Amino acid sequence: MTEKTSETRENAAQGISRCENADHGRILDAFSALEARYRRIFDSTRDMSFTVSREGQLLEVNPAGAEIFGYGTKEEMMALESVGFLFWNREDGVILLRKIEREGFAKDYEVEMRKKDGTRFIACITANLWFDKSGRASCEGILRDVTELKLWQQAFIESEKHVRELTESEKNVRLLNQHILNMLMIMSHDIRGPLVAIAATLKLLIRGIYGNMDKSVMNTLTDLMSRVVQLLGIAEDYLGRAQSVDGFCKFEREVLDLRQDIIDPVLDELSNDIQKRGIIIDNRLGAIPAGTIPVHANKIWLKAVFRNLFKNAVKYGGKGCRIAFGFEDHGSYYRLNVYNSGKPIPEEHRAILFTKFGRIEPENRPVQDGVGLGLFLIKEIIGKHGGAIWYEARPDGSDFVFTIPKDLS
Asked: Which of 8, 66, 240, 315 is 20 to 30 Å apart from 187, CA to CA?
């Protein structure tokens, strides 16, 4: 009985030993697999993974570290006497190791490093203090080359600085432009007053209120009157342009006779150009008769609309062209138009007709004055009056059509 018990115990011990050996083998296999996985990650990362002893000896480094620092192999790099050789300033390495030893870690620590060929780059280091089973301390961490990133950051900072400078410059230019526009409006307004007075005096002289005069003197006064009327129109036009560029359109409406107060005075302003170019004013296409069309509008602004439309008709119609104007009564509003014969505006240019600073030069003719505010200005004016304007191409010319309410009250 005793022999059997002893044999049983021996068999049991052998079974336990075999189990323990099997478990130990499985544990070793698991650790080997884990180590292999860690090694693959360690060797494949593009950042430098490293382990440094407390004395500054490089204990382990991955291939990426050797590549970053320009060494042929990681073994060549690990043969360095100290990691201090990798710092541009060796004292920086000492400071970093002391920081890690004192605080237990360093996160995103930026420092200048030195490659094997002596070139400098900026590194970002994150590392922590680690102790092995024997209590020996070492430092493990990741090093990343952030030189290009820092350059991009600096470029971004510079670009932001330039944007601020450009914004400030634009602000100053806007203030300067505002000042110029204000001066232009003041000048146009101040010039208009004396011109109106001169025109009134010349009318009296031409009518013979102050006595008869020679024909040559009368012709001179008539020519002078024409020039004053043109200057008056220019002053009013530029007053409107300046206010339009400024984004400000002030309307003080009054009851006007469209033909007598608006159309005829504008045609008088342009009479010299119309005669010199041999242009025909055609009144057969529903022209605006005098004394029959009262509107509530601002006189200066409405004259600016027709002045620009007639000027465009003269400019694009050319010598010997035909200009017509007319209206249709649609109950609550008028539909008006200014037409000129000649070539229609090319379709590819029509999209910019009513845009600010949009200019279209006549074909085969020299560049003329102006900044492309005419049609933009009249669109603003008509819009402020509650109307709309558009362009209609005709087989034999161009027609600008717009609407204006009879009474906005």
From this structure: 315
